[in-house]
Every structure is written in structure tokens, then in C-alpha cells.
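Budget justification aside, the reviewers requested a transparent look at the raw inputs and outputs of the sequence design task funded under Objective 1. We therefore reproduce one unedited record. The lines immediately below are the C-alpha cells for a 692-residue chain.
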């Protein structure tokens, strides 16, 4: 989406300018040891003065112009401070946290592009959802202006060949597969940096495991390469000085490197990952950010990263709970009473659900009549469609004021809405039942967005909402993270996802609420929950929970956890680790280790994983070299391109063993049964998968 200007931008800029003054006064030269002291030095800080021009951090005028677009803006002071942290511009890892719409993406993108320019090595940008990937690809295409290819690696898009690519935009799953492949063919050095947006996903019970695996492997590999370099350098120095041996030269060697499968527990050499500017230049720089990461310090320690935290949000966001006609503020007091006329249907109905529907409709009505737009989160795909249908029937939704979008002008449409409807009719790849409903509601300024829409439909809906053709969008939580849309008001139709036993938590709530009041688009934002006052006030006030490693052992609440099994199998499968010392250094690069009170817990979990993998013949211990080696089952489970975790691989192998004893070839049904994908715990096969 474009960073469209509107008439309230001046207020936004004024607010930004105020804090620019404060932040510049706060900063001093000691925060920027890398300073070169001159404008255009590329280090951003000169003589203790914080520089707020993007060109001070990026010497290439074309790229600066790509970022600036048509706008004339400066960095927020916090963005400049963050970029100026010691070593960050030279390639030191960086972890930072700022509220939603705080401007986090710009910092990461500027660093990624700068690194691409300096090193010629590919930047990997990892995002949790496809909708975000689509936006990001379009954005990088604009910024890079064709100088480097931008590769899409999500859904059905893209293979794992990234040679010559400037920026790869991918989902967590694809990033994990790509890094596994790069380790396998020893090409990880072709990555200049990895940007992980929504870094709190590391704690996600379903997908966090993959993120932690990927980042741990990068950390380990970087540390290993640096240790080898340091050892070689020390050996060269020693031989020059005529002294024997290279011991104590900065490469921490763990005792027991040729021993058996036991583990000792000395700490990983911090020298291996600290180092000088030139050492940063060689490593794969990890840049991670989130708006909802309260224990960001632990994560920064894990990634050996510079740390930055701010609570600066350029556009204020207010939170409310609507109960009947009353709107309660965060403090629990009535902020205002909705002045819907007595004729507004069901507004005062006794039935809770009817009343909530009427309040939701009034909240939408108020907003669109003021020339703004509403994002309404619903608990399910059906819920989105029903809500969109009802709102389109009930409300008169005018087009938002604004110019014709580029595509509407190009097609000679009289209005953005006319263009959107024509475009919708012309889509070639659609979900038919959703399409029928979209054709009913879009002409009335309403749409819906969920995972069953095709990417063509989703993209059209997003563009129609961005340009003002549509002003009410009913969506599932997949639209919760990172997407930049012109949303004045977010309404939560329910405070749970799916069913009531899956209530929204504070992290989800904040991500979803944060879609309102985006900088550069609007001057204020509102998030409104419907229903139970006590529960919803608690949700608004609750801070996001700290994240934990998904490599922890399974427990009663999380029986599906894999402990260290998957990560160790993957590392052995690509020969990243083989000796006991390797394993030890590897597990020290995990978040589990960074967040565990003692290393013993990690050692026990590692030993249990090794034993199980050995027992089930995923890996073996080869003598006399005393190394771990992958076996065919392990390779099938954890080699590049495999999506099977060890448990799924075992289940599939058991099925195949059984089939071998009595395969029924009279018809294809048995074969069909065997090749049907195994759903993960709690997953259902989608219609598309069944059709395939
Ligand atoms: N220095 C700046 N001046 C003006 N606008 C900015 C600046 N930095 C970022 N923006 C704009 O602010 C909007 C929000 O920024 P961005 O998407 O980076 O936020 P974010 O912190 O990543 O939010 P989220 O956590 O919700 O993804 C974007 O439209 C972006 O172009």
C-alpha cells in the first residue's frame, strides 16, 4: 500500500518534530563510537549530533529516493538512535522493540538495503503472513527500482535458488527451508542479513520452533566461521613470532571435542561472536523487531545483538470497550455515549448478540460518515462473510474522499469504487462462493478478507480498501500483523479467535488493535472491543506475555512440543554439527540456553534428544571418528525440502512398514491413502488440499 498523504499529515509531522527535538538533546557522541563525524559518512552521527536524514545512513541517492517516494520526511529520532547503535551499521546484530506503527520496518529495511549495497549479499526478509509478504515485495520493488531482483518465496511462489537476488521476501516456513538448504550446500555466506519482522513469533507454539531453529543455525554457523578465522589468524601470528601452538588465541575450544556422546558445559566464547567491525562485515547480520516483546533483552542476549527499546508511537491509539450505548475508556470510566437514534435497529435489544451487532454497525456508520474507514475483526471466515453481508445491507457507505488511484485513472474509471468493482469482475482465479458475495458487497463499499480468498481476491480487496473504494473491511486475525492500511477504527466483533475457548491474548490484541492509526496515513486511531466490560478491560490493560523457547520439553499443556529433537536432527542432517563439541556449542546458540537459569537443563534436554534420535535410527554415532551422522530416516525427515518433523516421519515410516506387509493393489485407494498428506496436530486438510 502506498504511504498516502492526507490532510492530517501536518499534525503527524508536528508531533514527530516535537520529539525530534527532545531526542536530539538526549543523544550524545558516546552512543556512536562508529561515528565518522561528517555528513554522508554513512554512519549517521556526526560530532554528537543525531542525523535525521536517511541519506546520512545510505550513500546511494537512488536508493534514498526509492525509500523517500514522493514524501519529504525525516527519520524519527528513535530510528536514528537505533541505526546509530555501536556496530549496527557495520553489520552487528540488532534487536529492537517499538509500538505498532512506530516505524520499525524502515530501520530494518534501511539496514538490509545498506548491507546489500555494501556486500552484494542477499537480504532475507522473513514475515509471518503471506499478505505481509505481498506488500513487502511491492515495497522493495519500488525501493530498489529494478537494480536488484526481489524474490517472492511464499505460498506457491519461488524455489530455493537465490543466486543474484537482492532481497528474498519469505514466510517463516520458507525461510527455514532456505537456510537449511544453504547450510547443506555450504552457501550461507551468500546471505548478508536476515530480517525477522514480528520476532515475538519465536515464542509461537506452532511456528516458533522453526524460527528458533533457523536463527540458532545462523548464529552457530557465524560463530563457527569466526572461530575458525580467529584460530587461523592466531596460528599465523604464533608462527610468525616463532612460538608454538595457537592455544588461547580467542577460539574457545571446548574440552571433550573428541569424546563420546556426553556433554560438558563451558560457555561459548563471546569473542567468537563479538569482535571488531570487520568481523561484523563477514557475518550474516540478524535484525529482529517486534511491538510485543516484553523480554526483548533476553532475545537480544540470545542473538548477541545490540538492543533498542522505545515506546514512541507517532499516531496515538485509544482503546475502548463498548457495552450497549456506552463506550468505556482504558480507565474504566464512560468516555462517551453512542448517539444512535432510537430508530437504529436492535441498539437497545435485550438479546446480547443482537445488541452487539447493532453497536458494531453504528460504530462503522459513525466512522464512514466521518470519511474514515473501519477494520472489523471477526472470529472466523464465515463470521467475516456474514458481517460483511449484514453491514452492506444495513449501511450506506460513501466512497472515502481522495484522488482516483493510479489504476482507476489508467482504466478511465469514474470513481475508485467503479474501478474496484470492474477489477473484481475481471479476476481470473477466484474462490467462487466468496466471489459471489464480494460482488454483492464491494459495490456497497464493504468487503471481507480471510485465508480462503485467492491471492488475486485478497490483493484486490486490500487495494480497494487502500484507495477508499471500500471503507469497511471484515477480516480474520490473519490481517493482524504489520499490514499498513488506512484504518481509523478497529472493531473487535468478538474477543476470541475461532471458538470461545481460544480467547485473544494481549499480544494478539495489541497486534490487531495496532492496525488503527498508521503513521503517514491517519492522525489518530481507535480500537474498540464489544461485550463484557470486565474481561475486555483486563485484555486492554494486560501487557503482552514474555516469550519462551519452543525447544522446551513437552508438558501437560503442550504435549506436542519436540524439545531439542528437531533442531538437533536438522543440524546433524546438514553436517552443521558432528562432534560432541559441535553439539555443545550449537545448543549454546539457542534461545533455550539464553533463557535457561542454568546450562544443565539444556544439557539434559540435548542428551534426551540425542538418545531418542539415536534410538529411532534418525542418527548414529560413528566410531572411531566419534561423530554423529545422519541416517536415511533422518535425512528424509530433516533434509532440505522435507516438512516432516521427527514424530511425523516416524508415523509415516510406521505406516509404510505396515503397508509393506500387506499392500492392497486391487484399486488405487490404498495408494491414495498412503500419499495423503499427514495433517499436523489439530490441523484439518483444506478443500484445496483435498482437491489436489
Ligand atoms: N520517519 C518516518 N516519518 C514518517 N513516516 C514514517 C517514518 N517511518 C515510518 N513511517 C511510516 O509509518 C508507517 C508505519 O511504519 P511501519 O510499518 O514501519 O511500522 P511498524 O513499527 O513496522 O508497525 P507494525 O508493528 O504495526 O508492523 C508506514 O506508513 C511508514 O511509511
Amino acid at each position: 500500500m502506498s504511504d498516502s498523504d492526507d490532510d492530517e499529515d501536518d499534525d503527524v509531522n508536528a508531533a514527530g518534530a516535537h520529539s525530534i527535538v527532545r531526542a536530539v538533546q538526549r543523544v550524545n557522541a558516546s552512543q556512536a563510537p562508529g561515528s565518522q563525524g561528517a555528513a554522508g559518512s554513512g554512519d549517521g552521527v556526526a560530532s554528537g549530533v543525531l542525523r535525521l536524514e536517511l541519506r546520512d545512513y545510505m550513500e546511494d541517492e537512488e536508493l534514498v529516493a526509492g525509500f523517500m517516494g514522493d514524501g519529504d520526511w525525516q527519520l524519527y529520532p528513535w530510528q536514528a538512535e537505533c541505526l546509530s547503535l555501536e556496530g549496527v551499521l557495520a553489520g552487528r546484530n540488532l534487536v529492537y522493540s517499538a509500538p505498532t506503527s512506530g516505524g520499525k520496518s524502515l530501520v530494518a529495511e534501511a539496514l538490509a538495503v545498506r548491507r546489500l549495497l555494501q556486500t552484494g549479499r542477499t537480504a532475507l526478509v522473513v514475515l509471518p503472513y503471506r499478505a505481509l509478504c505481498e506488500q513487502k515485495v511491492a515495497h522493495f520493488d519500488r525501493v530498489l527500482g529494478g537494480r536488484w531482483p526481489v524474490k517472492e518465496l511464499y505460498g506457491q511462489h519461488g524455489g530455493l535458488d537465490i543466486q543474484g537476488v537482492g532481497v528474498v521476501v519469505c514466510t517463516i516456513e520458507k525461510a527455514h527451508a532456505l537456510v537449511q538448504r544453504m547450510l547443506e550446500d555450504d552457501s550461507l555466506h551468500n546471505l548478508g542479513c536476515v530480517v525477522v519482522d514480528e520476532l515475538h513469533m519465536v515464542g509461537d507454539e506452532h511456528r516458533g520452533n522453526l524460527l528458533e531453529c533457523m536463527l540458532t543455525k545462523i548464529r552457530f554457523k557465524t560463530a563457527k566461521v569466526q572461530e575458525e578465522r580467529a584460530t587461523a589468524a592466531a596460528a599465523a601470528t604464533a608462527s610468525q613470532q616463532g612460538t608454538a601452538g595457537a592455544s588461547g588465541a580467542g577460539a574457545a575450544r571446548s574440552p571433550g571435542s573428541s569424546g563420546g556422546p556426553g556433554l560438558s558445559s563451558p560457555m561459548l566464547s563471546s569473542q567468537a561472536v563479538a569482535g571488531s567491525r570487520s568481523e561484523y562485515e563477514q557475518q550474516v547480520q540478524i535484525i529482529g523487531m517486534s511491538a510485543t516483546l516484553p523480554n526483548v533483552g533476553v532475545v537480544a542476549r540470545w542473538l548477541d545483538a545490540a538492543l533498542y527499546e522505545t515506546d514512541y508511537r507517532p499516531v496515538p491509539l485509544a482503546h475502548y470497550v463498548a457495552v450497549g450505548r456506552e463506550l468505556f475508556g482504558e480507565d474504566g470510566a464512560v468516555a462517551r455515549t453512542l448517539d444512535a437514534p432510537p430508530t437504529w435497529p436492535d441498539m437497545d435489544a435485550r438479546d446480547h448478540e443482537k445488541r452487539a451487532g447493532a453497536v458494531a454497525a453504528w460504530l462503522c456508520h459513525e466512522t464512514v460518515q466521518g470519511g474514515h474507514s473501519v477494520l472489523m475483526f471477526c472470529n472466523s471466515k464465515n463470521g467475516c462473510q456474514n458481517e460483511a453481508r449484514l453491514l452492506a445491507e444495513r449501511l450506506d457507505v460513501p466512497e472515502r474522499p481522495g484522488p482516483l488511484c493510479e489504476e482507476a485513472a489508467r482504466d478511465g474509471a469514474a470513481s475508485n469504487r467503479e474501478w474496484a468493482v470492474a477489477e473484481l469482475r475481471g479476476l481470473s482465479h477466484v474462490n467462487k462462493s466468496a466471489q459471489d458475495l464480494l460482488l454483492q458487497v464491494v459495490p456497497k463499499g464493504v468487503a471481507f478478507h480471510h485465508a480462503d480468498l485467492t491471492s488475486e481476491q485478497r490483493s484486490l480487496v486490500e487495494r480497494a480498501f487502500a484507495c477508499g473504494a471500500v471503507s469497511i473491511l471484515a477480516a480474520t486475525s490473519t490481517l493482524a500483523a504489520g499490514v499498513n492500511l488506512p484504518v481509523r477504527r478497529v472493531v473487535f466483533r468478538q474477543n476470541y479467535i475461532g471458538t470461545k475457548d481460544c480467547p485473544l491474548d494481549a499480544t494478539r490484541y495489541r497486534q490487531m488493535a495496532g492496525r488503527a492509526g498508521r503513521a503517514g496515513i491517519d492522525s489518530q486511531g481507535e480500537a474498540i472491543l464489544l461485550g463484557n466490560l470486565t474481561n475486555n478491560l483486563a485484555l486492554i490493560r494486560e501487557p503482552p506475555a514474555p516469550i519462551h523457547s519452543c525447544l522446551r520439553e513437552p508438558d501437560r499443556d503442550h504435549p506436542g512440543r519436540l524439545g531439542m529433537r528437531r533442531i538437533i536432527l536438522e543440524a546433524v542432517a546438514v553436517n552443521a554439527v558432528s562432534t560432541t563439541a559441535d553439539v555443545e556449542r550449537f545448543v549454546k546458540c539457542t534461545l533455550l540456553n539464553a533463557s535457561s537459569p542454568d546450562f544443565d537443563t539444556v544439557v539434559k534436554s540435548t542428551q534426551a534428544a540425542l538418545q531418542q534420535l539415536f534410538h529411532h535410527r534418525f542418527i548414529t554415532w560413528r566410531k572411531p571418528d566419534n561423530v554423529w551422522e545422519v541416517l536415511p530416516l533422518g535425512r528424509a525427515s530433516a533434509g532440505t525440502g522435507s516438512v516432516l518433523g521427527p514424530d511425523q516421519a516416524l508415523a509415516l515410516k510406521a505406516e509404510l512398514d505396515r503397508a509393506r506387509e500387506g499392500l492392497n493393489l486391487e484399486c488405487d485407494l490404498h495408494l491414495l491413502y498412503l500419499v495423503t498428506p499427514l495433517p499436523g496436530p489439530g490441523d484439518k486438510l483444506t478443500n484445496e488440499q483435498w482437491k489436489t
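Residues 1-46, 245-276 have pLDDT under 50 and may be disordered. The pocket of adenosine-5'-triphosphate is lined by residues 3, 73, 75-76, 79, 98, 100-106, 291, 482, 484, 514, 518-520 (CB under 6 Å). Computational costs for records of this kind are itemized in the attached budget.
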